[in-house]
Amino acid sequence: MFARSSDHQSYSRIARRLGACLWLLLAATVGGSCGHSHETHYVDVALRTEAVEQATVTDLGYAVTFTEARFAIRDLLFTQNGEAHMAVLQRLSNWLVPEAHAHPGHNHGGDITGEAQGRWVVSFLDSGTSFAIGTLAEGDYDAADVRYTVADEELVDAADPLFGASVLLAGSATRDEETVSFTVRLTYDDGALVAGVAFDATVRLGSNVWLSFLPYDPLSDAHLMDGVDFLALAEGDTVALDGTGEAGSALRARLLTHDHLLFEERFVGLD
Length: 271
Description:
This protein has 271 residues and is of the alpha+beta class.
């Protein structure tokens, strides 16, 4: 008898793992679809903005108050079953290639079962303003995806400070009874994605969905403006950040994560 080569043993081992993975994936798919064998019902849902929380405090002790908080966004997608599906796929990946490591981030995946198509400028100074109507399947949701756009003449007047940009924040930062004003004007590529925004909710007939801008991450208490030393950066009594430099680049990167947006469902009943 001849000993099998190590290459042949490796190929056989990988083939066996592939076969088992296919069976597991099929079982997960069939099992995950069993709960959705009933007819899917879709509902029209008003999308509204929640007012931003004021006087939140950064790691450097600045209390931040907003007088402007507007985002130019487009094409919202809402997903179900994301965490369960991703968990199955991750287990399969880890078993097939044990040395593989998960990529950092929060790509929930899942089934896209709701959307709102269009382009909007949303303001987070007032609570309850409706900016769109979405169509969502009834059921439990995990997450949503948001895309930035660039505010053009279809969205704002050319004299508007948001024109040509995607995010406009303005307000004041106070520490030790010293106050400076600030503006933050950021531009993203049209369609720049903020993936995996939390949306832990059950949607039903009579639901509204509220979008919040969070100055701080509620899980870690990290503030959007952490590390920004307003008094040191001030020219006179004003700070202007545009996505460049150390402070501006940090803000630009943070607003591409899901940490500073949140979707919530609120049942308002039927008219």
